[in-house]
Amino acid sequence: MESRREFLQTVAATTAGIALTDGVAQAGPPTLPGAPAVHPPEPEEGRLKQFWNETVKDLVTLPTPQLTPAEVERHLIYCGLLSSLVVHYWNGNKRGKDGEYPWRPKQQVSNKQYQGGDYLGHNIACLAVDAEGEVIDFDFNHNEVFSSSVEHAESRLIRRIFSLTQINNGWATKGIMAPAAPTTYSNLLSDVTVYTSLESCSQCSGIMALGSVKEVVYLHRDPGQNSIGNILRQLSPEKSSFKAPLPIPADVLGFNAFTELGTAYERFAKEVGKTPFFKPTVGKPDTSNSITSFLCTDLALDIFKQAKQDFDNLQTVKYADHVPSTDDGKPVPNALTNQRVLEHARAFFAYGSTEGKRGTPHQM
Ligand SMILES: [Zn+2]
């Protein structure tokens, strides 16, 4: 039987991360008998139980959304509006205004001076649309404004929408006749679709899940987020009304920029070691393959500009009279038709690009 002294030696060695064999320290994992496993016990029921012995691929794979052409057309209008806002507020000066950005020659206004001014945050925007099809508001990443790594577009927007529902704002979720203080907030956003220009991180996916947002359409995949939105959705209880939003990658809508952004980012990540993202006047060049650096480059800007151009060129819609349906198949009361959605999106861009300044709380 192990003596008390041997046991204490084992505990001390395990705490230090060293295994003992016959009292001799060996390299390797801790071997304290009865040490708790690092994973939780296998659940007896629920979604986690269903995936317990499945592959990670099974966990991140969601069924392709079944959308009618009219629904796709509607989504694409908002994707075009969001791209237009991204272009309008583009600012690639992530490492400051002084220095050289070899990936941004088209944004150069004079020798080593680039368009954009003070950097407010990354070029990542999102907007939220209510059940009727009205845009509630938009927001941008504002990490730099707040010197914080958590001021992401989606989390800012969700918090803002909850605050908007406390007042009768012109872009309010439930119309101007709604009571100023909602009687319930837990499912207030359950008909809201968020459109975001970059796949959401764990913070934003979590906030959208807590907010019971219906779905999130993203224009560009972020490989660094490990498909966390898919995982949260997959693990949401099937019959609960409190589900993580359904993630919809915009390539399933036929949004060309989605694949183009992915390919361009791969190129940037591969070549940035040789061609730095930024060369300061003094000090080491920045060769990081950060996706937010990519989102400053001409490569990325050109793709968003093309998406804006496609939106600007859209004069008519094929499914002009289409309105969305409720879960029981009835038309959503007071919903905008696709034709009205297009007009509304243009009106919102006029608002968003003039009144709704980036870096401020927006107001009419
Ligand atoms: Zn985020």
From TrEMBL:
Pfam annotation, one family: dCMP_cyt_deam_1
InterPro entries referenced in this protein's UniProt entry, alphabetically: CMP_dCMP_dom, Cytidine_deaminase-like, TAT_signal
Gene3D superfamilies: Cytidine Deaminase, domain 2
Annotated GO MF terms: tRNA-specific adenosine deaminase activity
Any one GO biological process: tRNA wobble adenosine to inosine editing
Protein name listed in UniProt: Deaminase
Domain CMP/dCMP-type deaminase, residue spans: 116-219
Domain of life: Bacteria
